[in-house]
Amino acid sequence: MAPAPSKLYADDVSLVVVLLDTNPFFWSSSSLSFSQFLSHVLAFFNAILTLNQLNQVVVIATGYNSCDYIFDSSSDLNRSFENGRMPVMCSSLLQKLEEFLIKDEQFSKEEPDGRIKSSLLSGSLSMALCYIQRVFRSGALHPHPRILCLQGSPDGPEQYVAIMNAIFSAQHSLVPIDSCYIGAQNSAFLQQASYITGGVHHKPQNLDGLFQYLMTIFATDLHSRSFLNLPKPVGVDFRASCFCHKDTIDMGYICSVCLSIFCKHHKKCSTCGSVFGQAQSEVASASDKKRKTPET
Amino acid sequence: MNNGGGKRINGGTEEDDDEDDVNGDLDAWERTYTDERSWESLQEDESGLLRPIDNKALYHSQYRRRLRSLSSIATAARIQKGLIRYLYVVIDLSRAASEMDFRPSRIAVIAKHVEAFIREFFDQNPLSQVGLVTIKDGVAYCLTDLGGSPESHIKALMNKLECSGDSSLQNALDLIDGYLNQIPSYGHREVLILYSALSTCDPGDIMETIQKCKKSKIRCSVIGLAAEMFICKHLCQETGGIYTVALDESHFKELILEHAPPPPAIAEFAIANLIKMGFPQRAAEGSMSICSCHKEAKVGAGYTCPRCKARVCELPTECCICGLTLVSSPHLARSYHHLFPIAPFDEVPPSHLNDPNNKLQRNCFGCQQSLLNPGNKPGLFVVCPNCKRRFCLDCDIYIHESLHNCPGCESFRHSKPVISNEE
Hints:
Strand order of the largest sheet of chain B: 5-4-3-6-7-8
Number of strands of chain A: 10
Number of domains of chain B: 3
GO cellular component, one term (chain A): transcription factor TFIIH core complex
Number of strands of chain B: 21
CATH topology of the largest domain in chain B: Rossmann fold
Keywords (chain A): DNA damage, DNA repair, Metal-binding, Nucleus, Transcription, Transcription regulation, Zinc, Zinc-finger
Family (chain A): Belongs to the TFB4 family.
Distance between the termini of chain A: 40 Å
Strand order of the largest sheet of chain A: 3-2-1-4-5-6
Largest sheet of chain A: 6 strands, mixed
Strand content of chain A: 15-25%
CATH topology of the largest domain in chain A: Rossmann fold
Protein name (chain A): General transcription and DNA repair factor IIH subunit TFB4
CATH superfamily of the largest domain in chain B: von Willebrand factor, type A domain
Order of helices and strands of chain A: EHHEEHHEHEHEHEEEE
Main location (chain A): nucleus
Largest sheet of chain B: 6 strands, mixed
CATH superfamily of the largest domain in chain A: von Willebrand factor, type A domain
Number of helices of chain B: 14
Mean pLDDT of chain A: 82
Oligomer: heterodimer
Structural class of chain B: alpha/beta
Number of helices of chain A: 7
CATH class of the largest domain in chain B: Alpha Beta
Strand content of chain B: 15-25%
Structural class of chain A: alpha/beta
Helix content of chain A: 25-40%
């Protein structure tokens, strides 16, 4: 998979792992159609590959029921340089994307109830990080990896713990997570992800010009970013939500055993069952240890 | 590894003083033979042919043994973990710490790894606090008070590394007992002693001190650098800690980093309590205010305490003015993976490797690396017990040590994750 080791990897070679949101519930109600979106995005991929001959692009689709790898620019099937023309990537990418969407729909079990549901961002983030670890293991010469999330679906609060785990692991491995949010409201998860890992978060105002936003903000490699004036994080909200009402709170009470957040003083923790102010003699029962996740 | 091959190849007399120079006079190719000894990494297989040691499989099997022993402790009962820890690290600065059996000296190795440990500790336990205590000339000194900022501890440690005199376990434990009695009741009290000496010179009866520590519910662990000592073993057994002795530098690093994740908590040791905490907002970009930690005017980039509106520079911290603990939600989230651990993956028994039905998943689900060895022979892989996806050995290690999410379980909406604590 790796090119010949005699090639020197300069600072500006990048590996971009793109997490493409294919949630049908979001796309069916979006002002930008999925095919228009794909045309912007495919042109963007081509542009990244032309910026540097050694750049790599890997695409992972974030579906509603599943996630999967769609495209890898370094695999042998996609590297057909003939007479200096662009590698033939569009057809194989689109074909695999279509196969993925058909399979994703077959997993559906429930009827949609009108609310836009979230996609499985935590799954595709985890897969992207595993792939990046493999690149790190491949030797001393490797492109500089980063992750780009193209997301429109809203945040799913049940994924909070998994997404935070992925964010901290990315921070530890020094992998920035960029995010371009094309949905209606704001995504607190993506804002936090970009802030904590040192990436760039942007919510384009005019979706017709999506390609321009992608090229000017997200196309540059990590080394050159220090010379550019990229959108700065404004007002990232790190306040927590209480477990009882899901309100954002400024000051709260934390259970010392399970770190659940409450807005008012309680006698007993609803997550782990610890009684406050008393030494416990028994361990909490299993029914109380539900995987409750907080929202931010 | 001692330099047994330090002979000059082109003859000549050598004196013992020249031992250090000999290495410098060797050519680079000669140094490879004296330092690396590549012939030691060969093994014989069953037919007597030589083959190199399969480091990857060895590393993975060591990792799995460690993981199994950790998870068997955790699943024996539904064990809670002490997430709010008040830990004192005791560094022995007696004569024995200047011994050079660890290169360059025991104390240099200890200092280097304590720095790494402190950073890893605050990474995994953002709400906890660490203090440093040193033992020198038989007297214990408190180097730094309990605090939540790694830089102040590391700076203080690097300044004071001179070794002399004897070591005294009892003085250290008495000092720490006094300090740890003042912390809030919901915190878990721990001590980690890095002991280089082979003796302890105590003013009184150390058994009494050990009983006092046991009554104060302080969990003492010891990492020895010399040899196993009865008194350390007794101390750890009485207080519920862990006693280990390091064989070499890399083993020492492994042992000390094992104390970074929260240990299983003994329920009676800490009283559950609701702790009042604040979640400050980031101050606006251009705002100017006097920051309460440095007492000077600063522009932007700070946090405002929700109770008294004072400005603080970084989180987590305690507001200097009103004493409220200030954290941000990611700090709490860093500890959630201790509460929701993922189940260890199952190894595939060798009989299944050649099963023709298993042609479906040829690639690791996480990194898409091929699971087949060259020549289409099946390689080693592991399987998640919930989602049944296959992962390569490297992804297995990464997932359990760093990521704490199974990509397979997260990528499928209709799989039900099983929390490994429940049986």
